[in-house]
Specification:
Distance between the termini: 14 Å
Number of helices: 4
Helix content: over 70%
Length: about 170
């Protein structure tokens, strides 16, 4: 059934477009949401914060909004740099996933790649997870949303020009 489907091509242009789409999702949606959720968890569960952080006003809503805004503004440059660094990995993943016909596996692989690459700075120190956990979650979600959108666009294009569809999950 799947053997008659054409093998999808993967080019540097496709990798760049996927990275740009993921960058838009990251800066516009997933990073603010992930940061807000992590701020709420940190404000309500004091055991999540490292020792001594309770006195910094981290539980204050106003301070949380300031940190959220700072994370968005100051996180834009590392996010763009991270997208550039991830470009060869995205290209390699695209080439490796060419024979895979299940769109869900493409989305999952892209999500895992983006989240893993964003989690690499977690190795910097014992308290780095406080800052990089929202970024890693947001990057994984942005990668998944970007890949899903690219697959939907490809399916619509193919459906308009031929008579086959992606197989149902």
């Amino acid at each position: 059934m799947n053997t008659d489907l054409p093998a999808p091509t993967w080019t540097w242009r496709a990798s760049i477009l996927l990275e740009l789409r993921a960058l838009g999702w990251m800066l516009g949606a997933t990073l603010p949401v992930a940061t807000t959720v992590c701020m709420l968890v940190a404000a309500t569960v004091p055991a999540v914060l490292p020792e001594g952080w309770e006195s910094t006003g981290f539980r204050d809503v106003g301070y949380g909004l300031v940190v959220l805004t700072m994370m968005e503004v100051y996180g834009a440059i590392p996010t763009v740099v991270g997208a550039v660094v991830a470009l060869p990995f995205t290209m390699l993943l695209g080439l490796l996933m060419r024979p895979v016909r299940r769109p869900g596996l493409h989305v999952l692989a892209t999500c895992l790649l983006a989240g893993t690459l964003a989690a690499v700075p977690l190795a910097l120190g014992p308290f780095a997870w406080v800052l990089f956990t929202p970024v890693s979650l947001a990057a994984g979600a942005a990668g998944a949303l970007a890949r899903h959108g690219a697959l939907r666009r490809a399916a619509r294009t193919v459906r308009a020009t031929s008579d086959w569809e992606w197989p149902a999950p």
